[in-house]
Structures are given as C-alpha cells and as structure tokens.
Design a protein that fits this description.
The protein is an alpha+beta fold. It folds into 2 domains: 155 residues, 7,8-Dihydro-6-hydroxymethylpterin-pyrophosphokinase HPPK (Alpha-Beta Plaits), CATH 3.30.70.560; 138 residues, Threonyl-trna Synthetase, Chain A, domain 2 (Threonyl-tRNA Synthetase, Chain A, domain 2), CATH 3.30.980.10. The protein contains 6 helices and 16 strands. Strands 1, 2, 3, 4 and 5 form a 5-stranded antiparallel sheet that branches. A 4-stranded antiparallel sheet has the order 10-11-16-15, with helices on one face. A hairpin with a 3-residue loop joins strand 13 and strand 14.
C-alpha cells in the first residue's frame, strides 16, 4: 500500500455535494481515506470566473500505481461531468478537479503525469489544506514542510478579498468573533438550544445569552471550555461561502437578517464544526484565537448568560 495526497476542487454548484461525491467515489475505487482537510473557498487560479472554488486535500492509502491512480481519478472526473482536463495553462469552470499532488517519495516527469504536482508549491489553495492534514510533510522541492509552505505563500498573497455584503460600523476583533461562532456551535451541539439570541462582542470580553431551562453547573462550564479549546487547538480553517438567499432557505434563520440585506449572503465555516450567516471579520485558522475562558455565568428565568475572554 502507498500513501497518496490528492487535491480536489470545484466551482460549480452544489460545490460541497460535488466534493463529497468525489470523495465517496475515491474511497470506493482508490483505497482507504486516511485524512481529509476542511474545504476552503478561493478565487479562480489561472483564469477569470465569477464562480469561486471550494478546495480540499485528501490522503489515501492505495494499492494503485501512479498511472493507474491517474486513470481512476480521470474516470471519476468524467463521470461527474468534466469533459477534458486543463491543458497548456488553459483553465475553465469545472464540476470537479482531482489532482495527484504527492505519491510516496516517487518522482515522475512525463507528458501525461508529473509527481509531485508541478504547481503544488505555487498554490495557496493546495498548501493550506495540505498543511491542515500533514503539517510536517516535507515537500521536495522546495525542501520545506507543508506548514512552512503555507505560511510563505500566505505572505505573498492575501486570500481574503471578500466582498462587503451588508456594511456595518462595528469595530471587530476577529479572534473574538470566531470564538463566538465556536461557542454557539458548541452550545447547540451539547444542549440543542440554538445560537445565542443576544450577543455583545468586544475585544476584552464578550457575552452571549441563550434560552436554557436550567443553569449551567461547574462541570457544564468545564466541559464547554474544554470542547471550545479542543476546536481552537485543532487548527481548523475558517472559510467563507457566498450564496443567494434562496439557496439557504430552510438551512438558516433568515428572519435575523436586516430588512434591507443584499440578495447574496455569506456563510462562515469553522472547518466542518460550525457554519453561520455572517458578514463579520474572522481569523483564517482557529489556532489564531488563543485560549478560551468563561469568566462568569448568570442564569435567570430561563436565560443563561455566558461571559468569556480570550487569553494569549
């Protein structure tokens, strides 16, 4: 069995469904899926399109040889509607794109296949998810780890060129804002209480109010802190997805949007842990948040307030 890292991307809706379908097909035809990164949203690379991509990297344990693996990935692409591969630098919108990035320590240079992928070290949309699942993997060239490559490429290009949907005048602190999302996701997962119905987010401390039938115990508070900090330490990618309101009807509570909000909405994803409609500023990775600490709580007549801080 051999270890192979595959890059996946799509910019045709439903993007998440296409990526999941491709992963299922790869599991059936390639081998054991060992790890899969979060999906990140990126601008088109090498061509102009109004459709952003979702990209990810998956690691497989396979008994296929490189050219057999290439043949399988191409068949999956074609079965999902892709009619031809990019050629001589010409790119276009596509339902699915599957690239062999790395196959063990093998090097291949032929007209049909090059391993490692020839543009691996130029693409931030590959480096970020690769660094998420294999941060210490040495890439040759350039002789640095996947995490080091990701950091280097981030310095060269800012991926966050997101449009402004509903401008607001709040001075935001991205780590605190992302921590709010993680706490909301955690509270809903543990207690099924939904997201906070009232929030006040500041740099030094923030407070959220939830509907809970009973007050949180000391053990509850400890469990919440641990779960939130586990997610923070997992170094999950924080990425955005732009969709129309009609695409998310029934998926999110649109009644909480401003009356004059735009027809497009932005979904902020914290890895695969949480998703929420949001126009605010966020970190790019949960590891940038710091240590989450609940500084006080108060329960009164079915309303649970949580006050939290972030420590460096």
């Amino acid at each position: 069995m051999s270890i192979a890292y595959l890059g996946l991307g799509t910019n045709i809706e439903p993007r998440v469904d296409h990526l999941r379908e491709a992963l299922r097909a790869l599991e059936q035809q390639v081998g054991i899926l060992l790890k899969c990164s979060s999906f990140i949203e990126t601008k088109p690379w090498g061509f102009i399109s109004k459709h952003n991509f979702l990209n990810g990297v998956a690691c497989f344990d396979t008994n296929l040889q490189p050219y057999d693996l290439l043949e399988v990935t191409e068949k999956i692409e074609f079965s999902m509607g892709r009619t031809h591969k990019s050629h001589e630098g010409r790119y276009e919108d596509r339902t699915i794109d599957i690239d062999i990035l790395i196959y063990e320590n093998i090097k291949i240079e032929s007209p049909r296949l090059t391993i490692p992928h020839p543009r691996l070290c130029q693409r931030l949309f590959v480096a970020i998810p690769l660094a998420e699942i294999a941060p210490d993997l040495i890439l040759t060239p350039p002789g640095m780890t996947a995490k080091q490559l990701s950091i280097e490429l981030k310095k060269q290009k800012d991926m966050e060129e997101a449009p402004i949907f509903n401008p607001h005048n709040k001075a935001e602190y991205p780590p605190m804002h992302t921590a709010e999302h993680i706490l909301n996701g955690t509270m809903n997962k543990i207690y099924g209480c939904g997201r906070a119905f009232s929030s006040h987010i500041e740099r030094t401390k923030s407070k959220l109010d939830y509907h809970l039938a009973e007050a949180l115990t000391e053990q509850d508070i400890h469990d919440i802190e641990k779960r939130v900090n586990d997610i923070i330490q997992a170094d999950l990618n924080v990425w955005t997805e732009t969709v129309s309101k009609t695409d998310v009807t029934g998926r999110f509570d649109l009644t909480r949007l401003p009356e004059n909000s735009s027809e497009n909405v932005r979904i902020v994803h914290v890895g695969d842990y949480d998703e929420c409609l949001c126009v605010g500023q966020h970190v790019k990775s949960t590891s940038e948040i710091g240590h989450f600490r609940i500084s006080s709580t108060r329960w009164n007549n079915g309303i649970q307030r949580i006050v939290f801080r972030l420590d460096n």
